[in-house]
Amino acid sequence: MADKKYYITTPIYYPSDKLHIGHSYTTVAADTMARYKRLRGYDVMFLTGTDEHGLKIQRKAEEKGLTPKQYVDEIVAGIKELWKLMKITNDKFIRTTDKQHEETVQKIFKKLYDQGDIYKSEYEGWYCTPCESFWTKTQLVDGKCPDCGREVELTKEESYFFRLSKYQDRLIKLLEENPDFIQPASRRNEMLNNFLRPGLEDLCVSRTTFNWGIPVTFDPGHVVYVWIDALSNYISALGYMTDNDADFKKFWPADAHLVGKEIVRFHTIIWPAMLMALGEPLPKQVYGHGWLLLEGGKMSKSKGNVVDPVVLVGKYGLDAIRYFLLREVPFGSDGIFNNEALINRINSDLANDLGNLVSRTVAMIDRYFDGTIPSFREPGVFDEDLINVVMKTPVEVERLMDELQFNLALSEIWKAISRTNKYIDETQPWVLSKDESKKGRLAQVLYNLAESIRIISVLIQPFMPETPEKIWEQLGINDKKLVEWDTVKTWGKFPESAKVNKGPALFPRIDLDKELDELGKIIGQRSNGQAAAEKKEAEVKTEEKEEKQAGMEKETLKENKEEVKEEKQEDYITIDEFAKIDLRVAKVLEAEKIEGADKLLKLKLELGDEVRQVVSGIAKYYKPEELVNKYVILVANLKPVKLRGVESQGMILAASTNKELVLVTVEKVIKSGTKIS
Ligand code: MSP
Question: Domains, the chain, ranges and CATH?
Fold first, then answer.
């Protein structure tokens, strides 16, 4: 296992406020990755934590009449609670106020100073006395402090500087030679073109204007600049420069630092330069993800319940929130967070696609076989395609997860879910159940469904900490060895003896109207007209979607109640009506183009002793020579017609989408003319 180790980090969060759902985004993504790697047998180190120093925190604490430490302690406790609620499986939680971290930062600072990478000089800037802040000329607003709008003065302050400029060429080389170091690629270009190539200046890395920071040991009036302090967490947490550095030796360099796009700069310029100066290896990848935005713009805690992860998880459930965060937005892009999209995802992807698949399957195994699928089985048509689609899924999921493409990995899993739902429609177990001679086929169909769900339940584990267990409970899988990651690579592990247990719906449907009403109240802060219009628009969209879903759900419900017979009578034909269609197996003897008609081919078909001529609109999809000797299905009693002057004595069957057309054929060679019933 030595080489199968994986170190992933989130940024460490400012405890200046409670966290909103946007903050949870990075942590949920990192947790999903950590879970995934553990499932694949990696020894994982997953680190998160809090970034607790700086003037902002000092001020907030003063406002509340607390010491900075008292102030952060309370907020950090809340953050830890939140991660517990979201089932975040971090292996360590670092606080920059931890003694070990502070000492490591001091050692790093001293080492860099001793070797000449940090030097003392003067920092010149525009100083706002009431705010105790330095600003550069470009940061000023109308020549005044951008924070409080008061006068500023040009001031000089003694400071320590890090020789960032010295590392410029090596950093450019790093980015040019390692295209994967920064992901997505657009952020790499931004770093190169906007920061590195124009030239780097040395970085001011100490402050004397406030004291809530880590003191510079050899010059105690100075505290270490928060970013030097914060970035060091990734190695101080592993025991770097301590006697207890086994984790550092084992896990460094990090495999992935996940960070929001606005802090990519610190992680891909300052951090590698610090590591170069320290002579340590560089992280393998910095992934700069996008922001989750509200429709009105940036997310902030002041937006209230809408963005409060505790409220959202309480209301919609943890797995639904985690699913939404990773499914809705491609990792790397910005995305909009809104209740309507969230509820639609829950109702359609979770309640309808996954939830119904599980409940229908469990209900059918329970009803038709008293809970256990018999071992007498009969394979049949549709099985192969189902198995092919489901077995391809893990390969794709693994590839996409290694690229941190969470939304695409989920979309692959949902393709398998859709294929499995379609298999129910194709095989119609409720019809098979009516015929004693089809029991073997019914058993096979239900086994295939259960097996497909087993594979899906394993694949969703990294994303959803709660649902897989619930599925195993309902399917009657007790042996955890049958749901280990590698079991998805073999079809047929669903245990013979499993007895299913009907359980509650995995994802109860949410009443969208009610939720939108509540949302209406929240967005009521804006003009009533605007809120009402948005609500109306949302309702119309939702109605359309719900109509589709209702169609699907109605079917499930009725089927569960064994009301198949009454189901939408008007859509059915009777067996007698079907018997009126004379379907025959036919062998293609000849095929040729019809002059002046791009789409048509003229076919000569053998139908037992008879030969028929049929015109078919398949010229764009099949070459005439490909068709000869193929066995096709002919509607033999269709009234003859003339197409482009050529008589067609029947029609051959094909499956078509708007992109392709595929001829229907027989599974094995059978005498032409054979009737299909
Ligand atoms: N303390 C620094 C990080 C230091 S890492 C050595 C910091 N903290 S933060 O609390 O402001 O942000 C932490 C992370 O949350 C950042 O990666 C940031 O991009 C992310 N997010 C904050 N709001 C977000 C959204 N609305 N959407 C997605 N991510 C968001 O920066």
Answer: 1-96+290-336 (3.40.50.620), 338-489 (1.10.730.10), 576-676 (2.40.50.140)
